[in-house]
Amino acid sequence: MNNICDDLPIALIYAGGTFGSHGVPLSPLAAEQFLPVLSEQLSQHGYQVQILDNEIVKDSSTLTPADFVQFYQLILQAYQSGHRRFVLITGTDSLSFLAAFLANALADFDISLVITGSMQPLLIADNPNYQIDTASDAWANLSESLDLAMANNGIFMQFYHKAMNAKNTQKINSQSHDAFVGLPADFRQSPSQPVLIDTYLDNLPTLIHAAKHTQIQAIYALPNDSDALAYALNAVNDKTKAVILIGFGAGNLPKSDAIIAALEQLAQRQIAVICTTMCAYGGTNANYAAGAWQYQHGVWAAGSLSIAGIYGQALWLAVNHQLDLTHWKIS
Predict the structure, then answer these.
(1) pTM exceeding 0.85
(2) Residue 8 in 3-state DSSP?
(3) How confident is the model at residue 6 (pLDDT cuts 50, 70, 90)?
(4) Where are the beta strands (DSSP E) in the chain?
């Protein structure tokens, strides 16, 4: 474990999601309503936290690449001010996607960043007095994230008593507190030297502009006529920088001349196509002829990366104009 020795409190970023939702049906409370309640709860439990100003507070299903880059910018600016320990609360729908993006974006930084959320709100949903729900998983997830941020250097996702590698997690349950799977956190491999922050700040305008003009698209293989898959591939627009092709089994797909032509056309347009599997476990391989054929026509292999992990890495490389096989990493 690498202990972080800075005198500043943990920088907390609240971005909405189930954690800070209230009412029936649930929707995220505005920061000015929720943060005083959260601050009181943190104070009662002895946590020294500085809540960063953040204007992106919404349901995580509506987050965009531009929002992801804005969170990155917020962390860079706090880093410049001396902060080295961070906890980010967001919604579970895109939590893994944001975690993977930030893990790739901040891989060279000497920081502790923990991304978390909850399956139930911190507050009792139908209580107008904003009373803490002691049956919720929210406080346990947050307190464990704060403890992790204070003790270890690295970028993690914390959920249901598990510290995971933020680059490669996936939500697999829409109801259970134990909603995520992922590789266990590796506390041994993390940078210990400060970065030259000015270089990263100078590059921000480029990233912000690129994020506004970047899409990562997913195409799901189903037992349809192969023309349906060819049509979907041919319909990819020019704003798309990468296509996540979600195949059967170990990455198996139907094969046809039309699909091959569509894949080769995407390669000529410099749009990366990354094949993964709809299976929650096992990843992709080229053991079957039904999957191996595509890699001869410009498709990249996802290996064991989750869909969220693929998205996060592809988005970071795309906004940096580095989305090519030279920079693509399979984990």
Answers:
(1) yes
(2) coil
(3) low
(4) 10-14, 21-22, 27-28, 49-51, 85-89, 112-116, 154-159, 162-171, 180-184, 215-220, 240-247, 272-277, 299-301
